Structures
1.
Amino acid sequence: DVVMTQSPLSLPVTLGQPASISCRSSQSLVFSDGNTYLHWFHQRPGQSPRRLIYRVSYRDSGVPDRFSGSGSGTDFTLRISRVEAEDVGIYYCMQGTHWFYTFGQGTKLEIK
Amino acid sequence: ELQLVESGGGVVQPGGSLRLSCAASGFAFSNDWVHWVRQAPGEGLVWVARISTDGSFTSYADSVKGRFTISRDNAKNTLYLQMNSLRVDDTAMYYCAFFGAQWLDSTWGQGTLVTVS
């Protein structure tokens, strides 16, 4: 199975400041069709996960443009340009390239 | 509006069985692969199973292989998860989800809680 490793696992951030989460995969996430199926999800307590970014860098509908994704191969990053209160929760990267699909351990973002 | 609504969760003893359902609306259900993902209390997300558009192809996590069966009824726009020989470590919130072709979409249900105790 592809292991997804996130860092940091805990991310205290001051409101209005930027934040960054790293995600590394144990093997390349480039699929045979040339696409890279690396996605980012956000989950608030008691809620279902919501996808923010798909295929490395594309924002899902309704996602604020302060969220951005980048990376390639095995190394990926989610960035929040200016953290707002509603951004608290757990962020997961997830690979959909190789079955068995796998998530990272999650990064808990909290406001300092 | 795309919507997935799970049902069928509850409390069951170890060794027991449950059947989860996921009713889909607002999209062409029969055109998409659909999935079950679970989350144990306080833990992360783990894929459970997936099923192809016509139900002819299924895949499972090793931890549930041989015990769980994913199926679908496209005429009823419904996804199922038959869970047998349940174990304490199967306790989790179970979500159904679909992602569309090339992962262009992402829709999750609200989840249904399974407690094995």
Note: The interface with chain B takes residues 33, 35, 37, 39, 41, 43, 48-51, 54-55, 60, 92, 94, 96, 99-106 of chain A (CB under 8 Å).
2.
Amino acid sequence: AQSVTQLGSHVSVSEGALVLLRCNYSSSVPPYLFWYVQYPNQGLQLLLKYTSAATLVKGINGFEAEFKKSETSFHLTKPSAHMSDAAEYFCAVSEVVGYQKVTFGIGTKLQVIP
Amino acid sequence: IAGITQAPTSQILAAGRRMTLRCTQDMRHNAMYWYRQDLGLGLRLIHYSNTAGTTGKGEVPDGYSVSRANTDDFPLTLASAVPSQTSVYFCASSATSGNTGELFFGEGSRLTVL
């Protein structure tokens, strides 16, 4: 079974600082990995996804993630945090078992300090 | 573009009552899903439907039922609500039931069972 571990349920950064949200996965097959963002009182929306093409994936709002097979990681980064980045971020892994089974991490809440 | 519409947005319900959460999408997506989101547990799949006329059980299906009479609608029913079903429920859809499909989420239905 596939799984995802997000390290740090809460992360605080200063405005303009680097954002690094960690995600490690477990998978017996080449993984399909996603990052979703959830703003307060909203549903999740896709930030970016890895589907075995380029290992460095660029997403919306200046975010990117690098797939590292040797480290089983898919960390999310952004060079300079903006106040509007304050949200909860979910790493997820997808597999097909008769349906698209998406396993989500528990989420990391990002706080941006002015 | 509406995407996915969920109703109600919020509901307080007495234990033992029957409740149906509605979900409608206008994207003509084949696959639809119901998740519940609980603090510290991330999102867990309740039921899914790969296409109209078919449904399947996810990770936490007990106490819930779904139907998929047509492409657009995917209601979730709690036959006899219990306090442990207090949660935020998200309906989602995907154009494909394959591995790389992006999930599109509604804005959620917050349910409190007393």
Note: The interface with chain A takes residues 4, 31, 40-45, 48, 50, 56, 58, 90, 92, 94, 96-108 of chain B (CB under 8 Å).
